[in-house]
Amino acid sequence: MEPERQRSGRTLKKGRKRSRIPSKLVGAAEAMRSRWDLEENQQPVAKKARLSTILFTENCEITHGQLCELLKYAVLGKSSFPKPSWCQLFHQNHLNNVVVFILQGLSQLHFYKFYLEFGFLRKAFKHKFCLPPPSSDFLADIIGLQKKQIIGNLPKAMEGALPSASSKVSINLQKDPIIQKYGSKKVGLTSYLLTKEEMETYHFPLQGFPDCENFVPTKCNGSVTDNSPLFGLDCEMCLTSKGRELTRISLVAEGGDCVMDELVKPDNKIVDYLTSFSGITKKILNPVTTKLKDVQRQLKMLLPPDAVLVGHSLDLDLRALKMIHPYVIDTSLLYVREQGRRFKLKFLAKAILGKDIQCPDRLGHDATEDARTTLELARYFLKYGPKKIAELNLEALSSHQESQEPKNKAELVQQLNTSVLECLDSVGQKLLFLTREADASALSSSQNCQTIKCLSNKEIKIKWTEMSTVYAGPFNKNCNLRALKRLFKSFGPVRSMTFVLETHQPHLCIQYEVLEAAQLAIESLDDILVEGSCIKVQRPVTELTLDCDTLVNELEQDSENRGTIYLSGVSETFKEHLLQQSSLFLGLKAVILPKDLKSGKQKRYCFLRFKTFSSAQRALSILTGKDWKLKGRHALTPRHLHAWLRGLPHESRLPGVRVIPPPLEQEALQMLKVDHPKIAAWHWGRKIGKLYHNLCSGTLCLILLPGTKSTHGSLSGLGLMGIKDEEESTTPNTCL
User: Fold this and answer.
1) What pLDDT does residue 248 have?
2) pTM for this structure?
3) Could you say which DSSP state residue 151 is in?
4) Strand pairing partners for 662?
């Protein structure tokens, strides 16, 4: 059902026509890496340093070590340090300065709670990413300073030995995520197998799921016991025109013998061999004739009926194999980490087994070595049990190692251990810190920063939930409920839809999953005749939504959102259709197609990211026009925030405004004037703005909100970055 076209005072906007996209668009963010080298070789009219941050991590979380990696490369370039693994910095030699602002005590939560106060930051910096909660020494982590040994028995633990009893004093085992999941007693193998529900949650291929229709089962349906055989599995992939495809598989039996090690020729055209990860090159793969179906057949013959597969992020390996296996141990989930994050295989190998894998002087990963390592890690866990693993305090070891792990070739080890400050000093550059940390006093450019009391994730989740909720009505008592539901679902994914019958005439309460859908419903249906009634569509009025209209307008102007559009009503074939009509959409950078976390099925909405606002505007006009018949608008939720909100538990509450009692009014006003977090956010936003305007052109600038960590819980941090006077026009503009 479509709403009638009469309004009380206005008419619906009609779709406008617009432009086109590159003919060889690969599509998803991962495919952009295949273009980076090509982009770097293109000669712009005037060379300027610029950034590209099409991230490979879905939740856009960047570690402190990766930040340090970027800073070192920015200072000295690729002749001294490897390129960052998570973003691309073009024309590094045209950078004039590197400036880092650290707002101690602030987190990602603060940024979006006081979004309006951070006016300059959100408009000036289009590159945003999440940061994990800070360690005890955030500064040392991001600039690579050698920290003092503060963890008892740390060197022994890093060599693979269990800590002595003296180091257990400072560890609260009951709060360790491994103990919380498995308990402290040793149990058998079957207790560590992923359940079907866990496999569904972590996107393992499962029988009967819509995205696994052509997957092949291993036929391992025997009865599993604590004595069932373990097999280590690891796969390497390349990037093809259809996405990631298998190029190598290694299977290792319990004794450590490799029973299968095969190179595989993908079915589709390869656009990136991902050699730095896979070790596979065109020369290696050219003579190979083995195909995916050959490997599937061989694997089915090798595995006994009760085989248990062990791997690290094993879901990716099984999806590359296009196979379904019911009994798995995933070491990235077995060694549980805080907040759902995962330890890297390289770290676990060093911390648990005392062995070095994935060495920087080797071309890519060794699949057999990785498969054997996962098997050894599983055996180690089974032998010693959860309590011994928890006593290692892996979280603390990981924080320590991040800033010290060498990432370059052997001859550069000495340089890699050099701190960012020493790198900067060698080329006459400065790193500016705004922090209250005592150990920052030795820095020549240190400043003080006010510390703000930690808040709760729950409040920001409730705010976004209320902003994504709309009330619509009044409706006729004889209205077509099915047609109404279909109408409101056409704007985006609905979390819940209920009838409000307490009013004189019925109203609908619709809670959308994404803010864009709620805003689109308001813009499209408010004051329109639906089912014979002129309805109002509006948000609930609470203390968290009073500034909602202003916030929505500012979110739309966010530098990251200006080139991104939201579309609802997309089908499973939308991406293919988009590529077929690529000549219409110049400037398209990425297609983001969210999937249902449980079923793995593509949802009926998406985000398209363009190089410029004008190309995004043209695309929106075409896609909401008569030929495509989609509904959409400019995006409101930055990608990293969208991922963060989806990861938080759903929160709701009864609407209502919290009124401050009269005796407390003066006290509240006084707090607002003196030390309210909102005032601090506004103060630092303005101060950084003034400093930024005094920086010279070509300065790489990072704003870091480190997050907070306390006994009450942890809050993730947020990073913003950009290069002053960086222009989109530094790449050839192909928009019409």
Assistant:
1) 94
2) 0.42
3) S
4) none
How many residues are there in the chain?
Answer: 736
Question: CA torsion angle for 616, 621, 622, 625 (degrees, to 10)?
Answer: 150
Count of H helices and E strands in the chain?
27, 27
Closest CA to 533 of 497, 484, 499: 484
**Residue 96 reports pLDDT greater than 50:** yes
SS3 167: helix
Alpha-carbon distance values, 4 to 500, 523, 535 (Å): 23, 15, 11
Residue 121: pLDDT band with limits 50, 70, 90: confident
Q: Cβ(641)–Cβ(719) under 8 Å? A: no
Q: Under 8 Å CB-to-CB from 10, ≥6 apart: which residues?
A: 527
Conformation bin of residue 585: beta by default, left when phi > 0, alpha when psi is -120 to 50: beta
**Residue 47, number of CB atoms within 10 A of its CB:** 12
Q: Cα–Cα distance between 153 and 168 in angstroms, integer?
A: 10
Copy the structure tokens of residue 480.
């077509």
Percent share of the chain, pLDDT over 70: 72
For β-strands 243-253 and 717-723, DSSP reports them as unpaired
Distance CA 571, CA 593 (A): 10
Euclidean distance between CA atoms 117 and 505, whole angstroms: 40
The backbone region for 531, taken as left when phi is positive above 0, alpha when psi lies in -120 to 50, beta otherwise, is left
Q: CA-CA distance, 641 to 458, in Å (whole number)? A: 14
Q: pLDDT tens digits, residue range 324-364?
A: 999 999 999 999 887 677 888 988 998 898 888 887 666 67
pLDDT tens profile 247-297 = 999 999 998 889 999 999 999 988 888 887 888 888 999 999 999 999 999
CA distances from 578 to 54, 569, 695, 735 (A): 20, 14, 42, 16
Contact between 736 and 20 (Cβ < 8 Å): yes
Contact 178, 336 (CB under 8 A): yes
Q: Which of 457, 459, 170 is nearest to 339 (CA)?
A: 457
Give the C-alpha separation, 10 to 7, whole Å.
Answer: 5
Q: What is the pLDDT of residue 566?
A: 94
Beta bridge partners of 99: 701
Per the CB < 8 A criterion, the answer to whether 611 and 735 are in contact is yes
Q: What is the pLDDT, as a whole number, of residue 567? A: 94
Top pLDDT among 657 and 723 is at: 723
- Look up tokens 């006084």; give the residue: 670
- Spatial neighbors of 134 by CB under 8 A, at least 6 apart, are 64, 141, 706, 707, 708, 709, 717
Matching residue, tokens 């490979």: 56
- What is the Cα–Cα distance from 309 to 317, expressed in whole angstroms? 11
Q: Which residue has the higher pLDDT, 609 or 14?
A: 609
In angstroms, rounded to a whole number, what is the distance separating the alpha carbons of residues 572 and 604? 8
Which residue in this structure is represented by tokens 């805003």? 519
Question: What is the reported pLDDT for 728?
Answer: 42
The answer to whether the peptide bond before residue 474 is cis (omega within 30 degrees of 0) is: yes
Averaged pLDDT, 480-494: 90
From residue 310, alpha-carbon distances to 191, 217, 307, 376, 544 in Å are 14, 16, 10, 10, 47
For residue 494, what are the CA distances in angstroms to 174, 465, 653? 39, 12, 18
Q: How many CB atoms lie within 10 A of CB 302?
A: 14
